Amino acid sequence: MKITGKNPYINLDAYTKNVKDKERIDNQGKQGPKQVMAEDKVVLSQEAKKIQEAKKLMDSIPDIREEKVAEIKAQIEDGTYQVEEKKLAAKIIKESLLNELL
């Protein structure tokens, strides 16, 4: 079964119905002549493959940039770390607004 389109979950209804019908027939014991059942097969769209590749790349990136942390720690210890107040405030406001939108 090939599932494509913008909303592949809609197409799963047909597959689910097919599985339920097969189970119902099996439970009733009404098996007709032997038929060769095709195997289920999943085919991913190019978009889904790109999403999988992007996820793999994101998973390979470390959550903490150790070299950046070490650099900032050294600046704090030396007393040379400078905070740009306006830039920090803008980022806080931006983050707050984005959180409200989501």
Distance between the termini: 35 Å
The largest pleated sheet is described as: none
Based on Cα principal axes, name the global outline.
Answer: elongated
- Structural class, from secondary structure content? mainly alpha
Unreliable spans: none
The ordered H/E elements are HHHH
Mean pLDDT: 81
In percent, how helical is the residue content? 55-70%
Number of H- or I-type helical stretches:
4
Radius of gyration: 27 Å
Count of beta strands: 0
How large a portion of the residues is in β-strands, by DSSP E? under 5%
Explain the overall architecture.
With 102 residues, this protein is mainly alpha-helical. The protein folds into two domains: 1-61, no CATH class; 64-102, no CATH class. It has four helices and no strands. The longest helix has 21 residues, at 8-28.
